[in-house]
Amino acid sequence: MRRWPIGLALWFVVLAAVEVAGFVAVARFFVRSSHGQLLDTVALAGNWIGQARIEGAVDSVLNTVSVVSLLAATAAIGFLALIRGRVALAFGTILLIVGANLTTQVLKRLIDRPELGVDMERAAAGNSLPSGHSTIAASVVIALLLVLPARLRGAVAMLGAAAAAIVGIATLSAGWHRPSDVVAAFLVVGVWANIAGLFILVAQRRHGDVDYGPANRFATVTLALVGLGLLAGAALALGLTNQVLSTPVDELSRHRLLAAYGGGAMGIAGSASLLVASVLATAHRVVPQAVAARAQDLHIAAAG
After folding, report:
1. What b/e sequence results for 58-75 when a residue is b if at least 16 CB atoms lie within 10 Å of its CB, and e otherwise?
2. Residue 172: which domain range?
3. Which terminal residue of the chain, N or C, has fewer Cβ atoms less than 10 Å from its own Cβ?
């Protein structure tokens, strides 16, 4: 019998704790402080640059992300896991999608955004963190990554990270969400991905020897490096924006606004890449390719 993967379980617990801490830090700084609100507001204010040329594409992206599409995707992912004979995986991925999206909606209502005189035009809208659209996109991408065969995960991870980033950036371009809203949504999905991973491990604890399949190291490393590079660019843009916070937003130059908006977009894309990389790194162990003990039992039964 396979020894229970305690190290992997601990990794999920530690990573989930880091992501919870990250969410708290993002919410406290960008929602509760005037400094953070100013940085977010400048980034959001730059969304008008080139908006006329991409408005149609942005609307198309956002219109595909809805409650109906979420339900359809959840049903399809659960069905795909079941036809592969992975009952624990079906329940785990549904837990991931439902848990992440319910958590986002609850947090959106529980978190209070104080009026600090920063963004008066949107004061009446209240809190917008975390982003619901970004949660839907990222949770579906991660769930799909888990249920697909191991040989497809690398390519799907690349495309999925790009898709989650595009949806997140689209909400910024449409003026629906600030960069911190999207990053917070990805952190919520990350926490639930770890919870789902633990659930699947526990449900499969009686498995015998397993074949873990390919680890998709190239895709994992590529996504991690791209994510870190994008976050470094976002940090640089954040530093540049921080230098002009004393200037009213409507007096900032086009270049300053573009730098802030671009930094927000890089932060979103970088966070999406790291989220997918963190799941891809352990997906081959969470969802083994084959269970040798089960195959052996079937062979013995057939011989008998």
Report:
1. beebbeebeeeebeebbe
2. 6-303
3. C
